[in-house]
Amino acid sequence: MTTRLRLAALMPAAALMIATVGVPFVVLAAYAFQSRGAYGGVMPPWTLENWQRLADPLYLGILLRSLLAAALSTALCLVMAFPLALAITRAGRWKNLLLALVMLPFWTSLLIRTYAWMFLLRDTGLINALLLRAGLIREPLPLLYNWGAVVLGLVYAHLPFMVLPLYAALERQEPHLLEAAADLGARHWQAFWRITLPLAAPGIRAGILLVFIPCLGAYLIPDLLGGGKTILAGTLIQNQFTASRDWPFGAAVSLALMAAVLALLWLETRRREEPLL
Amino acid sequence: MKRRALLFFPALSGLAGCLRGGRRRLNVFHWSNYIAPETLPRFESETGIQVRLATYESNEEMLARVLSGNSGWDVVFPSNYFIRPMRELGLLERLDRARLARLGDLEPRFQQPSWDPRLEFCVPLHWGSSGILANPRLAPVPQRYADLWELRYARRITMLDDPAEVYGAALKKLRLPLNAHAPAELREAHREALRQKPLLRAYLNAEARDLMAAGELAACQTWATTAQQAISAAPHLRFVHPEEGFALYADCGVVLRESKRKELAHVFLDYLLRADVAAEVASATCTATAVRTARARLPEEVLAMETLFPPGETLERGEWFEPLPPESQRLRDRLWTELKSS
């Protein structure tokens, strides 16, 4: 009886997953093996052409560049989030306030926050205006519409996704372990390197996944902060479904991106021989 | 082609409308900036027909929604170069001209447009052009598209984020037709665009308006409507219809074949042709109306906007966008992706 109850309780979530993930995935897979309609949509015959096109250096380059941008953003997030998460676990009664501040940006839409960055980074934006006023520069710095702005935007948007799992992992750590290490003669950095960091590994892995995967598919931030001068995988896919009207190729690119992520995940779990997360 | 802004609104609200019975209801899918605040309330109170409005930002977005043939929309507003594709896809209903008494009020050149010479499928309502918006306080005003390849504007100009417009400007610089689509011509335009890219700050659509008004750019390629909005905010800006020629487009009302409320759809299209309604939309949204009788009702300061209503000899240099053959479309998409990722 309880088993049946448990199964019944899982049904809403299962139905939602099938309807919003399973069905679209099947549709996408069916699209990816057909031909483009002249004005959008998909048509028979079935073909492998969309997949052959992916091997084109042009598209491989875009995929590679997206992987690099996502990796760089993830690394920067990790470097910034680790000390922050550690500091929050040791902040005593300020802990909850600090956590709330980390989550505060989620209260406004990403689009609006990205526009806010555009206002900060523009030639006549706050940063350039202050630097000019202070006499530190003569000409406005080109802060917007370049790779730096794109990575900045990605790091900004995804930092909380790194902080929260790291915090959860570090919070669970027993403070006595560090005391014991100190008693046994370990220096601070040794204790950090051999106790804090290894015990935080599940949090680090979860944070990397939560940041890397959305960065890889991001299209709003590269589009707005990159000024349309760069193409990343997310923009490429979006273009195929809109301006280019090549849905089958767009479907193939999205599936290739998914496959790349899954392959990375699979390698990771196999290497560690333990479940993910 | 992505126009105007970046936000788009879910169309679901329109679909919910079909489910409720009782009052007569019409589902309208429109560009985001072509309706004045009073337009719909007046129509509803005069006819008793309730309008469900949702908006889109690009022709492709609209086409993707209605392609299935059971989208729930009755009236949509494709650009002129989307009429033929949508007709070939069997999406458009033949208009019942007897129900469109005011078609004769259109400007003569919109009575027999090249994309639908007998107005069998569409009602041209608004039109526009693209060109160069410049800030004379920062640099000499460019008169030709070729000027946007000059070093003195380096890093202080933007082009539209749109393959038809960017390659269109390059083709005009090469003195080729706007709609040239032979592979050799497209590749030549692509080489020009590649040469220009290092000089550009970015490829921007609506955002260029604010950068121009703030004095961050010396010039940008933009749509006349967007330019007029910038000029209203910063009157020293100048809009130029380039010497080599420029692009024209028109947005046209059509009735979808799937519509179950075709009569009401015709009533709505005829309402939009009414002089007072068209004039109201034109002055509220800074777009040029195709309705001749509306021009008499426009405020003088709107009529005087040469950006929106260029004089006849300027207009002669304009060319209407045409649909690209599928093969050329595919080549241009590839070149565009190459240009963007170079």
Rg of chain B, nearest Å: 20 Å
End-to-end separation of chain A? 31 Å
Shape call of chain B: globular
The total number of structural domains of chain A is 1
Helix content of chain A: over 70%
CATH class of the largest domain in chain B: Alpha Beta
> Could you give a short account of the major beta sheet of chain B?
11 strands, mixed
CATH C-level class of chain A is: Mainly Alpha
- Summed up, the helix count of chain B is 15
Task: Please count the beta strands of chain A (DSSP E, at least 2 residues each).
Answer: 2
Largest interface: A-B, 34 and 40 residues
Tally of alpha and pi helices of chain A = 13
Tally of domains of chain B: 2
Radius of gyration based on Cα positions of chain A: 23 Å
Estimate the mean pLDDT confidence of chain A. 90
Helix content of chain B: 25-40%
CATH superfamily of the largest domain in chain B: Periplasmic binding protein-like II
Major sheet of chain A, described briefly? 2 strands, antiparallel
End-to-end distance of chain B: 21 Å
Q: What's the average pLDDT of chain B?
A: 90
Number of strands of chain B: 11
Key phrases:
heterodimer, A: about 280 residues, mainly alpha, two-stranded antiparallel ribbon, globular, B: about 350 residues, alpha/beta, D-Maltodextrin-Binding Protein, domain 2, 2 domains, eleven-stranded mixed β-sheet
